[in-house]
Amino acid sequence: MHARRSAVIFAWILLAPALLYVCAIVAYPLVDTFILSFTDASLRKTTNWVGWENYDKIFNATFAEVITRTFVWTFFSVSIKMMIGTFGAAMLNSAVPGRALFRVLTMPPWIVPMAIGIFMWGWMYNGQFGMISGLLQRFGLTDGPIAFLAYGNTAFWATIITDVWIGVPMVTLYMLAAMQAIPQDLYEAAWTDGAGRFYRFRRITLPLLVPAMITMSMLSLISTFNSFDIIWILTQGGPNGETTTMIIDTYRTAIGSKKYGEGAARAVLICIFLSIFCLCYFRVTSRLATGEKQ
Amino acid sequence: MKEPAQLINRYKWYEILGIYCGIFVFLSFVLAPFVEGFLVSLKPLSQLFSSPYRFVPENGSFAAYRTMWESVPGFGRYIFNSFFISGIVTTVVLCMVVPAAYAFARFEFKGRGVLLAAFLAVNMFSGAVLLIPLFRLMRSFGVLNTYFAMIVPGVAFLIPSAIWLLRTYIMRIPKELDEAAYVDGASHFYTLRRVILPIAMPGITVVAITTFIGSYAQQFIFALTFNAKTEYMPLPVGLFAYFGRQEVIWNELMAASFVGIAPAMIVIFFLQRYLVSGLTAGAVKQ
């Protein structure tokens, strides 16, 4: 009994540094954001309690648009990431020569500091001199140059594509690992019964991948919802605010205009959405875990 | 008779063709920006800003790789800063995460499950959401515009995924080893240092690499918000120095990007095996 208690104390001592650190740098700011959201905090020395005013302002302004845009942006980005990633994983899972090299070649967008990859995309999207517009013109698909980042509609999709590009390596390698975890004898049994390759993929691989797909979609949903660097570097939320997502809007208000109170209210809304995603994630993963046991 | 596995994996010629086409399309998407970026770095500035678009540079040269050092004299410093910040962050994270992961993997105590979930939840809140209080916190510590402003928040957001990753690894180490040491009279601390640490070294290496990469990636927003001093800027923000007053020096920007990422690329090719397992076991990256 005594030994057990000393073990528990020892465990808490081991945990203490990480726990205290995360509390100070993540949990405390989280609480602080919440409190700030009810004040008019700014660069001024005095801070007044303003109640729900900041939240009222949010819902009066164009914020509903920003929320909708954020969800649409996130939805398309995550779905495209999942599709391309699963496709890539299926290709890399085949036993063809050179696949080890191909796997390494999928990693650069993940390894390279995000900002650098985004600069490269910024140049590719350039209307006069960039690759995409240049090649489209070369093949006669468009009449003139397209400055992708200058128009709301194209800028919206351009930022999505760049976000997809950064997320694809992780999805691909995760799905690849999931595919390799599928027991080989299932394929052998199906093969003995005369099932073709495509049939095996559709009837064995895809259904067994569903749990991994759900997990990955949730993780990718959370990171995409938080995505800041891409939009900030490519468009800063422009043109005319047509790529302004919730994170960008919060940053603009809080750091750009120094309206900490209003910014905090926006951050609180983001936290609420993230917590909902987070809860869904835990629900789904625990359900999957119990499903596996049965 | 051959093994079924071998027969299953035998492809017809058109299947192989299809697979290679698929891989080609997929990798074109993944690698296109790097190809374009590299070609841009070879083109002289006058040719870059000329229509019609030419994919392959005419009389391309590596001149930009030389002139980039002159246009932005601080560039070497930016690379150093990035490595310095990521290095310190990784060291601090490891010092906190190794004991914590051991505690989670090996000890039963009240609230363990809740704590683990809480750590995972921290992952959901990226630095961007918490910038305002973090800014005030950094200001009250008086560390704005120092290395600390980028290191302190960086560590916090990398701890959770590192704990999860390393915990999974330590759980795979047979428990009998600890028990044997314990029976021989070793203390918990001695067991951690002499039994677990050496065996967990490969896992710790994976965590170190993914933490380093994560720290390199997240520097942008912290450096942008908490640091205004040129001499402390890390590479991702430092590259903005090539955005001149009139126009962006694109060829030098691209050359500088490639010089900046070269060390990371070399690391991938040597450690890619670890990277894949780190990525898939943790599946978390900001």
The geometry of chain B reads as: globular
**SSE order of chain A:** HHHHHHHHHHHHH
CATH topology of the largest domain in chain B: MetI-like fold
The overall average pLDDT of chain A, rounded, is: 84
Shape of chain A: globular
Task: Name the average pLDDT of chain B.
Answer: 81
Number of discrete domains of chain B: 2
What's the β-strand tally of chain B?
0
Proportion of strand residues of chain A? under 5%
Task: Say what oligomer this is.
Answer: heterodimer
Rg over C-alpha atoms of chain A, rounded to the nearest angstrom: 24 Å
- Give the largest chain-chain interface (CB within 8 Å): A-B, 101 and 106 residues
Contiguous runs where pLDDT drops below 50 for at least 5 residues of chain B: 282-286
Q: Describe the main β-sheet of chain B briefly.
A: none
Number of helices, counting only DSSP H or I runs of 4 residues or more of chain A: 13
Tell me roughly what share of residues is in helical segments of chain A: over 70%
Content-based structural category of chain A: mainly alpha
CATH architecture of chain A, by name, is: Orthogonal Bundle
Keywords:
heterodimer, A: 294 residues, mainly alpha, MetI-like fold, 13 helices, 75% helix, 0% strand, B: 286 residues, 2 domains, disordered C terminus
Topology (elements, then pairings):
The complex is a heterodimer of chains A (294) and B (286).
Chain A: H1 2-36, H2 53-60, H3 63-92, H4 99-105, H5 108-111, H6 114-124, H7 131-138, H8 152-180, H9 184-192, H10 197-225, H11 229-234, H12 246-256, H13 260-293
Chain B: H1 4-8, H2 13-42, H3 45-48, H4 63-71, H5 75-106, H6 112-122, H7 131-141, H8 147-171, H9 175-183, H10 188-226, H11 235-238, H12 250-282
